[in-house]
Design brief:
Helix content: under 10%
Radius of gyration: 14 Å
Number of domains: 2
Order of helices and strands: EEEEEEEEEEE
Number of helices: 0
Number of strands: 11
Oligomer: single chain
Strand content: 35-45%
Shape: globular
Length: 150
Amino acid sequence: MAFIIVGSSGVVIDTAGFAFPKHTATAFAVGDIVTNSVTNNGLIRATSSHDNNGATPLFGIAINAPAAATTEAIVAQLVDGMILEVDLANNSSTAHNMQRMTLTDHNTLNNAGTDSAADTAIFTQIRPVGDATDKKALVVVKGVAGQVTA
């Protein structure tokens, strides 16, 4: 299920989301991380190459699963303090706790075992979820583009 909102730390989260314009080239799945594409006039699925402080910042999490031809998607905006259960590229480990992670693609985080200082590393692992082979963890969002952070 990719990214699931499970709570927040010090912030109120709108888990119902809001209807935002969506580019019609790609379908979204529930839990996909999406980004704003100014050139496409709408949201698209995020990739590992999206620049959090550039023209295509990470934007939110798909709450519904619109087909490719759909022009709107229900999305909850990423907010600093949001707590998410995420899918990982590798087996989960407590050795990754408090490491910052980047996207592998729209539905997976790269838990390579080293802290990432990249501006797209806005996901910090709190702890693994389930067995290591489940490849899941709880993360906190910190450093979303355009937000004032303490």
